[in-house]
Amino acid sequence: MEGLLITFEGPDGAGKTTQVYLVDEYLREKGYNTLVTREPGGTSISEEIRNILLNSVHSEMDALTEMYLYAAARAQHVKQVIKPALREGKIVLCDRFVDSSIAYQGFGRGLGMDVVETVNQYALQGTEPDLTLLFKMDIEKALNRGRARSGCLDRLEREKLEFHRRVYRGFCVLQEKYPWRIKEIDASKSLDDVFKQVLKQIEYLIYCKK
Ligand code: Z5A
């Protein structure tokens, strides 16, 4: 089977990371070759960029700088990690990807979808997700879940609720624009229930690609 890129998207604290690891364990047990990675991050350069992006010290960061830094981290990640893994036939499970840039920088920061998509076309180098699981739930509840877990907030988590609402709207617009790729997961359910929804989508994708 050719490689597959599956991305996990949605508001902060919706349960994406938890599900990435559950899926990884499940697929490995079934004998699939998987790779878990994340954005921003996934390479040493991209992880350094992540530290700059999330550091709450940089409260003066301009929206354009932010967009380019996410795209720069992505360009390195795609070239160094994602493309080689896909060539090797791996199932790549990526915790956030380009849709987060469109939602957070395009809608949240107000740069607009077109600008962010255009800049990211270069970063993506022709790579597109085969499936995107969009974790949807009440954003306040999701943010509270994340905050209960980590305690201290990064630069984006410190943004006002209104910012996170615009981001969420961005994800919904993307879902309407790319319904064949972006599948909704009801993230308000229990861990097991969310896992069942996630597996249903992934197993269908694997069945279609066989
Ligand atoms: N960002 C951007 O602006 N532009 C971009 O292009 C990209 C990213 C790629 C990265 O943050 C930040 O960068 C992010 C978007 C922005 N900022 N914000 N805000 P990150 O990688 O550090 O964090 P995150 O991706 O936003 O997610 P997170 O905090 O790790 O949350 P999560 O992965 O969705 O949730 P979780 O860690 O799996 O679970 C959170 C808690 O809920 C935890 O205690 C779990 O045990 C619990 N949980 C999980 N599932 C459930 C269910 N079903 N029920 C009850 N409790 C649950």
Beta-strand residue fraction: 5-15%
Q: Span from first to last CA?
A: 6 Å
H/E element string?
Answer: EHEHHEHHEHHEH
Within CATH, the superfamily carries the name: P-loop containing nucleotide triphosphate hydrolases
- The CATH architecture is 3-Layer(aba) Sandwich
The number of distinct helices, counting runs of at least 4 residues, comes to 8
User: Mean of the pLDDT scores?
Assistant: 96
Per the CATH scheme, the topology name is: Rossmann fold
Small ligands present: ligand Z5A
Question: Summed up, what is this model?
Answer:
With 210 residues, the chain is of the alpha/beta class. It is 58% helix and 13% strand. A 5-stranded parallel beta sheet has the order 2-3-1-4-5, sandwiched between helices.
Features:
Rossmann fold, binds ligand Z5A, globular, alpha/beta
